[in-house]
Amino acid sequence: MDDSMLPKYVKIVEVGPRDGLQNEKQPIETTDKIALVNALADAGLQVIESGSFVNPKWVPQMAGSEAVFAGIQRKAGVSYAALTPNMKGFERALEAGATEVAIFAAASEAFSQKNINCSIAESIERFAPIMEAARASNVPVRGYVSCIAGCPYEGAIAPAKVADVSQQLFDAGCYEISLGDTIGTGTPAQIEQVIDAVTRSLPVNKLALHAHDTYGQALANIYRALQLGVSVFDSSVAGLGGCPYAKGASGNVATEDLIYLLDGLGIEHGVDLQAVVDAGQRMCDLLGRSNNSKVARALLAKCRVD
């Protein structure tokens, strides 16, 4: 494919403060979460998933999301998003001042049952009151589709199934559909098949890709999606957030690595790479873990040598 067709600008949706931290077992101070969100906004990221309004019994790390939203220094032009799986969560997010919310469905029936204890159809039905309330409050809703390439229970997922669920979320009122390679098994050929299937009915400018790097394919998958016209990508600072279905495997693609790819392709994104590297390393130091971003590790090592 002719790379002259690549998008001129890419929107990066930073999911580190939510998706990156939600599975951490050790307590993280609210002040440190707030500092991370503020640093990412200062770096130029325009959409930051800042918390999740779920039952704290299921995701204890997100129990302080109200305090995070109350404490951040809001910047003009930055959307502070929240994951809201149900109506109670949406109401909490609205009260906390989330500027957009996200809902999620799966392309796998088995994953839907295991993850949220209902069928795909039932999950989308449950979102109807959220969509109605969001329209009344003029709050944009983003839709996630999990398991677009593979499922830990079902294996390979048919692209037509991903297209069907994406269409349902779009028809329900989601302004953007984020296609999630939840277990990171996707390859560029699979991602192409999924995007081709979804774009038979949805415009490509309504799609985003949420790539995991479990098998080291995330950047290759992103590059293929770029060639196919996708211009919105989810990523997590320092690659925070492992894959819960592959023990010890990396999860979210690192924001730093995505930025480096975009810079190499001459695609604008408006984000300061070094500022993101610094923000990610500070959080890694607090967590006592190594940085999952290859770009961050290389730049930090270069600084030490220099």
TrEMBL record:
Pyruvate carboxyltransferase domain: residues covered:
10-277
Task: Give the EC number(s) listed in the UniProt record.
Answer: 4.1.3.4
Which GO BP terms sit in this record?
ketone body biosynthetic process; L-leucine catabolic process
Q: Which Gene3D superfamilies would you find in this protein's record?
A: Aldolase class I
Q: Which SUPFAM superfamilies match?
A: Aldolase (SSF51569)
Pathway it works in: Metabolic intermediate metabolism; (S)-3-hydroxy-3-methylglutaryl-CoA degradation; acetoacetate from (S)-3-hydroxy-3-methylglutaryl-CoA: step 1/1
Look up keyword Ribosomal protein and say if it applies: no
Which InterPro entries does the record cross-reference, listed alphabetically? Aldolase_TIM, HMG_CoA_lyase_AS, HMGL, PYR_CT
Listed A to Z, the keywords are: Lyase, Metal-binding
Q: Which residues form a coiled coil?
A: none
Q: Which reaction does it catalyse?
A: (3S)-3-hydroxy-3-methylglutaryl-CoA = acetoacetate + acetyl-CoA
Name a Pfam family for this protein: HMGL-like
Q: Name one GO molecular function term.
A: metal ion binding
Top-level taxon of the source organism: Bacteria
Q: Identify the PANTHER family for this entry.
A: HYDROXYMETHYLGLUTARYL-COA LYASE
Its family remark reads: Belongs to the HMG-CoA lyase family.
Under which name does UniProt file this protein? hydroxymethylglutaryl-CoA lyase
Species this protein is from: Simiduia agarivorans (strain DSM 21679 / JCM 13881 / BCRC 17597 / SA1)
Lineage at the top is: Bacteria, Pseudomonadati, Pseudomonadota, Gammaproteobacteria, Cellvibrionales
